[in-house]
Amino acid sequence: MPALPEPRGxxxxxxxxxxxxxxxxxxxxxxxDDDEDLxxxxxxxxxxxxxxxxxxxxxxxxxxxxxAFRAGLERRFEADMLALAGSPEAPADEMDVALRxxxxxxxxxxxxxxVEREATAAQVEELLIHxxxxxxxxxxxxxxxxxxxxxxxxxxxxxxxxxxxxGGRADRIHAELFAGSMRALGxxxxxxxxxxxxxxxxxxxxxLMSLLGLHRSRRGAIAGxxxxxxxxxxxxxxxxxxxxxxxxxxxDATAFFDVHVVADAVHESVAAxxxxxxxxxxxxxxxxxxxxxxxxxxxxxxxxxxHLLTAWEQGRSSLLAGARSPAAA
Length: 329
Ligand SMILES: [Fe+2]
Ligand SMILES: [Fe+2]
Hints:
Elements: H1 10-19, H2 35-47, H3 64-85, H4 95-104, H5 111-117, H6 121-135, H7 140-143, H8 151-164, H9 174-184, H10 200-214, H11 219-231, H12 234-246, H13 251-282, H14 287-313
Helix pairs in contact: 1-2, 2-3, 2-10, 3-14, 4-13, 4-14, 5-12, 6-9, 6-10, 8-13, 9-13, 10-14, 11-13, 11-14, 12-13
The structure holds fe (ii) ion (FE2) (2 copies).
Residues 138, 164, 174, 260 line the site of one fe (ii) ion.
């Protein structure tokens, strides 16, 4: 299990101090100072549902006072997400068509093109450190929705997730392949090793998935999120693999990305037509939220890519300051 991170403000400081003690009913935690404080606090609350932290009592996971604190963080985060991605709207067309139109209209800068053509070795290391926040638990946030689905959408989701989890082979679990890429670049592949270096703008991409996955009321949005994730994965991963090869890396570094070029070309239509489309046909009232989940993904990913590219353009690291910054090494 990972160690607790360093705090980033009043809320995370009080939360992390509380987690070092046994659960207690009179927990009162302050509002976050800013988005860094909010995102880290939320990430740590959600992490209790994944692998937890060293020396943190497992009973904190369902402690009512902690859940009340988390609900306050979620209200702020959801308001921010609505401002960023807009309000849910009914699709103008069949769900898979609407998703494809949304994908085509995305104007976010292309991080993968930059990595393919010109990123430095240090920048690619940064990219993997950012992505480790999600990729070392790849597919887990979406899996929360499985018991909330039935019939066609459930079968579609399991088809995708079975691949994500290696199809019965531990060494083919996508999170394991990503850990292999990190090691090939000389990075620490231990779960949570870089949490102190990962900014809120990156944590928000993971918190969005945990938020949508852990609330049954958002089952439409997490299905839409996964659909757009799969639809926008194959080509960028080909470019990331090409960038790694340009920098002299071999298959141990590229395997994770190579696998996604093929797998996600298949997942993309299963996710759009059978999962998102199937759920919209089964529960038409969910259609606006399915589409919103896809829009929210594009919005947080676009904001994240802009953060990285802007930092690199200005010749600085996109990670939080610290002794282990590869770009500063
Ligand atoms: Fe994957
Ligand atoms: Fe996939």
